[in-house]
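Morning run. Coffee first, then this:
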Amino acid sequence: MAEEIATLAGGCFWCVEAVFKDLIGVTGVESGYIGGTKPNPTYREVCSGATGYAEAIRVHFDPAKIGYGDLLDIFFATHDPTQLNRQGNDVGTQYRSAIFPHSSEQETEARAAIVRAQPDWPAPIVTTIEADAPWYPAEDYHQDYWAEEGQSNPYCLAVIPPKLQKLRKGFAERLKG
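And here it is:
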């Protein structure tokens, strides 16, 4: 298996991570920070909005089972790519909608995915395509947050179930049994 990586930012990483965990072909999802300037940022620093980092996820996947374009279609269907520097009540550049391609092929696919997704949205998609940059994994307690603690967190309970419902409705054939 030649594993690949997709790096996506679409608001709170807890909420984006939960969407991708149970997809066929996904071998792992890691929450972290990308796109800023300070080495080894902390969650508190990123949340301040002063570092330039985005809360993001790295999706490790088997391209023989799920394609990069499929992951992008799911990404666009489960967050609002028309909101600039925000997702719902989370506001700031750290919550921006962004794709960080790892190759020129991924960049080409990202541009095509934006075109494919645009008819589903009433406003222009503002998702940026940003250069791959150093990745910093988030602190351990952020990893697999929905499964570990998120289901008792009121914020997560308000945001994640609607995303999972969109996933089940539009991509049921992509879900692990």
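The beta strands are 4-10, 26-34, 54-61, 86-87, 90-91, 97-99, 128-129, 135-137. Good start to the day.
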